[in-house]
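Database export, one record per block. Field names are fixed; values are copied verbatim from the stored entry.
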Amino acid sequence: MKRIALAALLALAAASAAAQLLDFTDAETRAILRHGPWPAPWTPDPSNRASGIREAVDLGERLFFEPRLSPSGKVLCATCHAPFRGWQDSRARAFGLVEVDRNTPSLLNVRYNRWFGWDGAGDSLWAQSIRPILDAREMGGSQAQTAALVRADPEFSCRYAKVFGAPPPVSDEALLAGIAKALAAFQETLVAGRAAFDEFRDALEKGNRAAAARYPLAAQRGLRIFVGRGNCSTCHFGPAFSNGEFHDTGVPFFIAGGGVDPGRHGGIRKLTANPFNLLGRYNDDPTGGSATKTLHVSLEHRNFGEFKVPGLRNVARTAPYMHNGGLATLADVVRHYSEISPDRLHSDGEILLKPLRLSAEESADLVAFLESLTEIASALEPRRPSEPCR
């Protein structure tokens, strides 16, 4: 009997040791709570009349997996944004028809973005969806070829008419805008599932210490660094863990083979010259409010070498990292910020980064926290067979 009681006490002690909760300060708790709840609220894109429409999602999904969007028939959207690879490609730099200069970001949670692309050259998801279709290095298509495909294909043309209330237009440019809006409607459905962090965050909010204590202690310590002296949450802010803006993080912007990647500086130039931007004729927002950000964007010297802050959900599944894919693992990313040299950052503007000088244990804890942002289960609906369009 004594042996049974002793065994029970030992088991209880082991469980207590395994389930601990750090004594987070009120300020730390408030910072943690700002990273939720998840999934975050979302409303359809007012600049895209197809946003949130089931028929548009179905058309966009078909287009996303359609190799004929590329004249070669060998490249489709899913070539770089592969569902089984976290909606990216696991390569340092994307490869369509040839290798390009930047890493492929995951499409999960893209609907929460304010700007699109590493350089923010897209001010809407639908405008951004046009770029790879026309890029000679990626899909190598053209307005005329893409429009002709949709007009000639009975399924595409029928579905287009159902979404937009009229047959595909005569104008190739107008039809391309509609194709992009359907693609965007599909991509808006790609949202990451809840992660261990979300269970912990919600337990803290409810004051359920027992549930919160199930969160691994290493992840708790890493989270404390993340919202505290690491200053990570200044840029990786909110439920999607991104402020949606652009920063110089000390990553080289030289391109292999010569040249430089201007980052946001070049993105603003592309944005203002793009006929599909929100100041143009294809914005469906009758209030014009969605175009305010584009109207007021300005080109500044400090924008050179700045790149968009990526969201961190499912980050453990989307290696390699940074705009050029130059860091292979999360440990490499943590080391980069731990040892960063301020001399490699812009001298003008606010400097947010400074070397953290993390110990090996602290670095491992921060990685453990980042790994806890991985979804427990996918939130996506399985692909459904669709009936022929009538």
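Remark 1: The domain at 54-187 is CATH 1.10.760.10 (Cytochrome Bc1 Complex; Chain D, domain 2).
Remark 2: The mean pLDDT is 92.
End of record.
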